[in-house]
Specification:
CATH topology of the largest domain: 60s Ribosomal Protein L30, Chain: A
CATH class of the largest domain: Alpha Beta
Radius of gyration: 19 Å
Number of strands: 9
Helix content: 25-40%
Structural class: alpha+beta
Strand content: 15-25%
Largest sheet: 5 strands, mixed
Number of domains: 2
Shape: globular
Distance between the termini: 21 Å
Number of helices: 8
CATH architecture of the largest domain: 2-Layer Sandwich
């Protein structure tokens, strides 16, 4: 059912076009910022960049990102078949979408291709067809993420909600400015080291506008959103009221001896696209 050309089309569209809901968030940011200010002009440039990329069918950003896939499969659907189809499609899509070859050998620095840096998350669901989501995550925003182990005396963070807030506050004040704000922040709490990171990364795939089902976490998301936008960092670090576009938080149970908090960051160029096979074909949606 899933074809190589489906993945190439998904990759190309995601490289070139920013979802319309991100455009709307940036336009709302314009309304918050003082007309003619550096913050206002930075958001104008973001919107101009989106328009030119779409019209010229060119990448939205010179860093065409780390390909991250979330794939939902029916029961007994072989995940490795899909993985191989995607990995075979990546070099073709990279060339056709004018994407940058960003994958390199960690020791020699020699190019290895983008297939080598592609990340996969697989979920089983009750529907009888697959769905594929692709996020192209910039390396600069990937660098801005931080994994904390609480308590952390460097930021005076204990093992409680206030400690979690201090983790996020640290990332906002020390990392976000280098991640092309306004940003999306995701926070994974608890679990093991690897699971805390995975939770935060998976939150980047949460449908835009979908709120947290947990009221405590939903309130925390709102508080952290307000914290980020009160920081004064602003678009591209020029100051202003628009530093954060969204905050997403989830939690796992933890071992009594551990308390991990991972804060992940995505830049304003939130390049997300999806394919749904519910009609027996690859239907693209934002």
């Amino acid at each position: 059912m899933i074809k190589q050309e489906d993945i190439v089309r998904l990759y190309k569209q995601t490289v070139i076009q920013i979802p319309p809901y991100i455009e709307e968030e940036l336009r709302q940011g314009l309304q918050r910022e003082e007309y003619g200010s550096l913050a206002y002009k930075a958001l104008e440039k973001c919107l101009e960049n989106i328009r030119i990329a779409k019209e010229e069918e060119m990448p939205t950003c010179q860093d065409t990102g780390i390909p991250k896939f979330l794939i939902k499969l029916p029961k007994d659907y072989p995940p490795f078949d899909i993985k191989n189809i995607i990995l075979d499609a990546i070099p073709i899509a990279t060339e056709e979408a004018y994407a940058r070859q960003s994958g390199v050998d960690s020791l020699t620095g020699e190019q290895t291709g983008n297939a080598g840096i592609t990340t996969f998350y697989f979920d089983e669901w009750e529907r009888e067809y697959p769905q594929i989501s692709l996020l192209l995550k910039g390396g600069g925003s990937e660098n801005a993420g931080v994994l904390f182990s609480l308590p952390d005396s460097k930021i005076d963070a204990e093992r409680d909600t206030n400690g979690i807030k201090k983790c996020v506050d640290y990332v906002i004040k020390n990392k976000v400015v280098n991640a092309c704000p306004p940003v999306i922040l995701t926070v994974g709490i608890g679990g093991t080291k690897d699971k805390a990171i995975e939770v935060a990364q998976r939150l980047l795939f949460r449908p835009w506008g979908k709120r947290n089902h947990d009221s405590q976490l939903r309130d925390l998301e709102k508080e952290l959103y307000d914290l980020g936008n009160a920081s004064g960092i602003g678009p591209q670090g020029f100051g202003g009221k628009t530093t954060v576009l969204d905050v997403r938080v989830d939690k796992l149970s933890r071992h009594i001896a551990t308390f991990f908090v991972d804060v992940s960051v995505n830049c304003w160029a939130y390049r997300m696209g999806n394919l749904n096979y519910g009609n027996g074909r690859a239907d693209f949606f934002w």
